[in-house]
Amino acid sequence: EAQVTQNPRYLITVTGKKLTVTCSQNMNHEYMSWYRQDPGLGLRQIYYSMNVEVTDKGDVPEGYKVSRKEKRNFPLILESPSPNQTSLYFCASSSLGTSGGATTDTQYFGPGTRLTVL
Amino acid sequence: GQNIDQPTEMTATEGAIVQINCTYQTSGFNGLFWYQQHAGEAPTFLSYNVLDGLEEKGRFSSFLSRSKGYSYLLLKELQMKDSASYLCACLDSNYQLIWGAGTKLIIKP
Predict the structure, then answer these.
(1) Backbone angles phi and psi of B83, in degrees to 5
(2) Per residue in B21-70, pLDDT tens?
């Protein structure tokens, strides 16, 4: 079954304690991205990657890191989480458009990770 | 700047028809998506429009007018399970997705 998986689904942590949210897809997609979703603000892109070892900042990259060592995995790292990073996080993947960047094909989203930073 | 506007919330009655509007201002345009998102769940793809006109998929239709920077999602024969948020997103000239804040649709019996 084609899917994007994220772990953990729920996480409560404290300020400053490093954490990693994993994301994996089994569709051989080149394009992967991370979003955060906050009430009234919609989806905001944190980072995206167009292929292995290629990552770029989205709209709200501050306080986050990513890596793309393998095609299927795209972990999101919070080195020193703060309360303003409390949010619902989604990983998404898609094939790469022929003109580069996001494709005109559908984005497949993971189930989401609800993070609370105390 | 780039901007996508959608109503925050709409209410409709089961069995009726509802139209959710989306207006956009982006740096270039390479198409517009509609996604459905149930509370606490991931968004799921509904439609993609890049040419002007109406595309129909069962109970759902999506319309695009590029000259007006306008799209709408039309939902017919509303069912309770259609209660969800509907997200409008555009691909800009760099093929980056710009997302609207979403429209929460409440269906009443």
Answers:
(1) -65, 115
(2) 999 998 889 899 999 999 989 999 999 999 999 999 999 999 999 999 99
Q: Which of A34, A37, A91 to mutate to test the interface with B (most CBs of B within 10 A)?
A: A37
* A90 CA to centre of own chain: 6
Confidence of residue A2 (pLDDT cuts 50, 70, 90): confident
CB < 8 Å to A111, chain B = 41-42
- Token pair recorded at residue A3: 């899917």
Contact list in B for residue A109 (CB cut-off 8 A) is 42-44
Q: Tell me if A92 sits within 8 A of A35, measured CB to CB.
A: yes
Residue B74: both structure tokens together: 């039309």
Instruction: Give the pair of three-digit tokens for residue B10.
Output: 């709409």
